[in-house]
Amino acid sequence: MNKNETINSSSREAIIASANSMRWEVGEDFHDTLMESIYSDAAEIAAKTVTKTDEKQIYHWDQKIDRIVTSKLLGFPIMFLLLALVFWLTVEGANVPSAFLASILIDTIHPILKSASAGIGVPWWIDGVLIDGAYLAMAWVISVMLPPMAIFFPLFTLLEDFGYLPRVAFNMDNLFRRAGAHGKQALTMSMGFGCNAAGVIATRIIDSPRERIIAIITNNFSLCNGRWPTQILIASIFIGAVVPSHLAGLVSAGAVVAIALFGIFLSLVVSWGLSKSVLKGEVSAFSLELPPYRPPRILQTLYTSLIDRTIFVLWRAIVFAVPAGIVIWLVGNIYIGDLSIGEHFINWSNPFGLLLGLNGVILLAYIIAIPANEIVIPTILMLTVMSAGMVGVGEGSGVMFELDSAADTAKILEAGGWTLLTGINLMLFSLLHNPCSTTIYTIYKETKSAKWTLISTLLPVAMGFALTFLVAQIWYLFAA
Q: CA geometry: angle at 196 spanning 371 and 154, to 5°?
């Protein structure tokens, strides 16, 4: 480096240091104050130059609503109540259509396929792989996932179409800035509630590389659409069972809201930790303009939520569930000694799983379900049936059980040794585990870094193990 380059480098560093010093001198609220001044001046100029023909303009209503839903006093309670309402409607409304689909796909069509297969002399192992493996996996995914998604996504899309979700991001902005993250992380977090891969891509709106990495790492703490069915089903079975039946739906919905809010809390905590350590730096400022409220477009909302979201997610789950079902059948029917491969793994991992308040079935299910979170529940159900000895080998292999209601599912899980602790820790581990394969690949494409991809993948798992272990030990301590 020559003398001129040394001088230029020193000058740049001096300018940057001076700018940083001056930035702290003007205070953290300078940017907000400046933006408020600009908008006030713009409003004053508009009031003097624009002639209004109708005093009851729509933005007046926008302002009145915003004073309520974005207020410091009512903003968060309204957000919690709306989320609880959405989950309550989902929990209460999913049982009947789920039982109806199961009665058709599993109770009716599955025996017909088995009879037809036996009639034409299909070898038992082909019958098992195709019907008891691939078909049943598809049938479970459809019956377990379609009803809650068909209710949840339209309701969530209505809130988005109405213009409420940007207000949620507005309410969360100050918290993220205090945690050392970019305010726009609230927007990418909201995207993550639909799909974590989409949330990772959405971090492109953050200009700062440091803050974008923080947003990418913590996006997995947003419950994606593949994890909602797990949360809703487990909450309705285990959390709702501890209260009177007339309160079960409300309490179950509250439990799901609590998990979602806990994910937001962890996102803030991890963002703060990263911003104070390996990704230390100053917080960038930005302006968030709220869109106007719009009357919900019912037909477009139904199309967007049912076709673009529900059917897309369901199809993706089926694509991954079919090979996963084949794998499950194989690990349950390929024997080493007196036990199947699956039973060997479950027995080997069960002591570790019990330390976490989980079990070997859950650990194996999350390994098989790495391609997609959507197949976790069907995988757990099938592995539980296998490990509990409800599946024969050869004749009748894979004829699992009837899923007429959440109560029947509860009986199967209880037969597999599940308790309230198992349900609670599964909900926690559903929040804190590795991203799906699509999200992992997206993280690598966006960061071009194996290091950040590995951290984004393993950090939630480590936190999930630590948290479930802590909860389990406290539970065992007081249960004893």
A: 105
